Amino acid sequence: xxxxxxxxxxxxxxxxxxxxxxxxxxxxxxxxxxxxxxxxxxxxxxxxxxxxxxxxxxxxxxxxxxxxxxxxxxxxxxxxxxxxxxxxxxxxxxxxxxxxxxxxxxxxxxxxxxxxxxxxxxxxxxxxxxxxxxxxxxxxxxxxxxxxxxxxxxxxxxxxxxxxxxxxxxxxxxxxxxxxxxxxxxxxxxxxxxxxxxxxxxxxxxxxxxxxxxxxxxxxxxxxxxxxxxxxxxxxxxxxxxxxxxxxxxxxxxxxxxxxxxxxxxxxxxxxxxxxxxxxxxxxxxxxxxxxxxxxxxxxxxxxxxxxxxxxxxxxxxxxxxxxxxxxxxxxxxxxxxxxxxxxxxxxxxxxxxxxxxxxxxxxxxxxxxxxxxxxxxxxxxxxxxxxxxxxxxxxxxxxxxxxxxxxxxxxxxxxxxxxxxxxxxxxxxxxxxxxxxxxxxxxxxxxxxxxxxxxxxxxxxxxxxxxxxxxxxxxxxxxxxxx
Length: 484
What we know:
Blueprint: H1 6-21, H2 26-42, H3 58-65, H4 67-88, H5 92-129, H6 147-162, H7 172-180, H8 193-196, H9 208-240, H10 247-278, H11 296-302, H12 305-316, H13 326-344, H14 348-367, H15 369-375, H16 377-396, H17 400-409, H18 419-443, H19 454-471
Helix pairs in contact: 1-2, 2-7, 4-5, 4-6, 4-7, 5-6, 9-10, 9-18, 9-19, 10-16, 10-18, 12-13, 13-14, 14-16, 15-16
């Protein structure tokens, strides 16, 4: 079920009515969230259900349609039981084995669905290069939507309980609601149990300020997705779907992709936070104007914050962080970003993207880039944007062959005839974002539009709503990060 779909509007309207009717019972509200979240997730169908005869039990068709929902339930229940087990065990070895079982189970499920075919194809290609004609069969696997997000969220719970940073919950409904909370289930942000889980265990009071913030974030998120991201997508395809490249074309196409992926993903995150605020919850900000960053490190403090902090706390620090000398620190950065790139998808361009950002973070540590940023801020920003944009080229390219071709094309300064119209369209659709985020940056407040007088704010939201309705695609364009 997509946020930018009519069926979600109907679902959320019905949910809000039921949510209000059970407002006096915390347990009923949490149970309603679990049921609604499973309906939200189970609505997703990766491919057509196999045809069944009329005499076949309808339940079989339903089970096939919702088979990945069972995976979500099973992994959630397993980690809930692991949390209870960790509370009972006192022997360090037993506790370590139990949390290792949780990590192994989550990573095995994620690895099987996401990387099995990638591994088989990579081995097959390597053998082929060695002159061994071995045909290895791949599996007909479908990547369950949101699996990269909810496995990391559930796994972080058991790790925090193991570390003694969180007491395990004993109410299964609370935990299931935490893992499956529908606003952020399929594309994050990846919430920490210490932040979100307690909110299911206390009475939620929904204030006017929460409603105003929620409505604004939902509208702004939809605007970024429907008006900006979905209109940048065809521009990106003009370049990345073409075999003929020049430097200006690659630059324009990559800038368009930078806008597309940002507005698409941050739009989802804003809608997720806004929806949660309307329900009385506070989920984390996942973006903080990342294209204002003046260094690779600052970019990762602003981009996909829930993933970058997850990788820092559960991977980088576990590897030793910066506590074991410079050489080990650099290696830990490279490994962390490499795995962060691989988290995004089973393809070599994601591996390259992760290595590129890891190398950027290492280079910043070696050169002491913080002093440069203080003295030459605009130059540092420009250099950072060049670094980020080339990273997006690695990320968006369909293959390593395309990466090589586009990189070579950067030396060709000829302008295709469509360049001017492309640049005009890109400017028109990016201007609202640039103006809004410039205002937010100056005000140092991502909610600064809420400070406008009510009539002015209502007019702004009305204009945004009209634009959303005009550009709304009937085919319901999925969010980019659903594929991860």
